[in-house]
Specification:
mainly alpha; about 110 residues
């Protein structure tokens, strides 16, 4: 399970850069269109939740509590994304991915001992 947490943490850090870039572009599009959507901002929050969860997951991959904390950050990011994806439909995909990563971390941490 340690290796899985390490791999997911690295993937999360890489995805942070992609999601943050997409969210900035979506936020700019929302601002120019003046449509009142917040999907760009929600994407940034999701990206930072993934970054935090990935770093915590890598640093505490041997810890039960660290895995649960990472899982909670993933789930918070997923909830933020699901609640406000709007026209930024990629945010829905990233939210589902956050839920999957969160479930892996939480279930893996519970079954650790």
């Amino acid at each position: 399970m340690r290796v899985v947490k390490l791999i997911i943490g690295i993937i999360s850090i890489i995805l942070f850069m992609l999601i943050a870039f997409q969210s900035c572009a979506a936020g700019l599009g929302n601002a120019l269109a003046e449509n009142g959507e917040i999907s760009g901002s929600a994407g940034l929050f999701l990206a930072f939740c993934m970054l935090i969860a990935g770093i915590v997951g890598i640093c505490t991959r041997d810890s039960k509590v660290g895995g649960i904390v990472s899982g909670v950050f993933y789930i918070i990011g997923g909830l933020i994304g699901i609640a406000s994806y709007g026209s930024f439909s990629d945010l829905f995909i990233w939210s589902i991915l956050c839920f999957i990563f969160g479930a892996i971390f939480i279930i893996g941490s519970i079954k650790m001992y």
